Amino acid sequence: MTYCLGIWLPTGLVLASDSRTSAGVDQISTVKKLALFEKPGDRVLAILSAGNLATTQAVISMIRQSAGRGGTAGPEGDILAARSLFDVAQTVGAVLREVMRLNRSYVEPYGDPSASFLVGGQITGDGHRLFQVYSAGNFVEASSRNPFLQLGETKYGKPILNRALTMRSGLDEAAKLALLSFDATIRSNLSVAPPIDLLRYEAGSLMAGQLAKFTAQHPYWADLRERYSTGLSRLVESLPEPRF
After folding, report:
1. What spatial distance separates the first Cα and last Cα of the chain, rounded to whole Å?
2. 202: β partners
3. DSSP string across 189-203
4. What is the pLDDT of residues 113-155, one digit of tens each?
5. The whole model's pTM is what?
6. How far is CA 181 from each of CA 47, 65, 90, 163, rounded to the nearest angstrom?
7. What is the pLDDT of residue 21?
8. Are 198 and 184 in contact (CB under 8 A)?
9. What is the mean pLDDT of residues 39-61?
10. How much is the mean pLDDT over the chain?
11. Are 211 and 36 in contact (CB under 8 A)?
């Protein structure tokens, strides 16, 4: 299992993914699940992946091979030549369908071959956008009424986002909420673990300079978790006792 999160705000995007992958209780490793494609001043594209590792790696590899070669949306589409994030999401969906068509019958006897993706970023001439691509290759887009999208182990990290994230949230606040969403997930599910890759993208910048990796020993990550845990405990203590 994995956890990927994308947050859309009027001021930009926050995208984050964990790094744990497993094929059983004794086969655990770390894999980067955030793929970045960038032409500074023209476009910033991030693709986050969840699901069958062979499927997600095949999809990202095919997209990388086509990048820079030109072409329209589709299995051979070049996302570095795409005119909009919608076209990029179409390409990711088409490549995923092609990988599934080639491999599904061979993989299904041994496990689930499906995968899903978050596609976020901005292309010059288009606004910053965020899409969730399902295993069927179709997709939905985030909006002011649905500002965050999740992949994988979603249930533990969702409550804090529902409570605290608003359209008035700044990118720094959204980044903190994203990390706390991962903290809640990691505390409750062993299949999600750091390092956490987090991209903070400011709308209109067309640069991906604010990309960080938070390991289990990262000072900020450790301090954030400790402060939040202590603060939450103190808040609970300050609440009035129930009456029976």
Report:
1. 42
2. 12
3. -TT--S-EEEEEEET
4. 999 999 999 999 999 999 999 999 999 999 999 999 999 999 9
5. 0.93
6. 19, 33, 28, 11
7. 81
8. no
9. 96
10. 93
11. yes
CA distance 139 to 134: 6
CA distance 124 to 19: 30
Coil/strand/helix, residue 11: coil
**CA pair distance 193, 188, nearest whole angstrom:** 11
Q: 95: which 2 tokens?
A: 């490549």
Note whether 69 and 84 are within 8 A (CB): no
239 DSSP assignment: S
Distance CA 15, CA 129 (A): 12
Cβ count near 84 (within 10 Å): 15
pLDDT by residue (tens digit) across 24-37? Answer: 556 667 889 999 99
Paired with 214 in beta bridges are 196
Run of H or E residues at 7: strand 3-9
CB 233 within 8 A of CB 214: no
Other CB atoms within a 10 A radius of the CB of residue 98 amount to 17
d(CA 132, CA 136): 11
**Amino acid residing at 31:** V
- The CA radius of gyration of the chain, in Å to the nearest whole number, is 19
Q: What percent of the residues of the chain are helix, what percent strand, and what percent coil, each to the nearest 5?
A: 35, 30, 40
For residue 97, give both structure tokens.
């369908």
Residues 122 and 206 sit within 8 Å (Cβ to Cβ)? yes
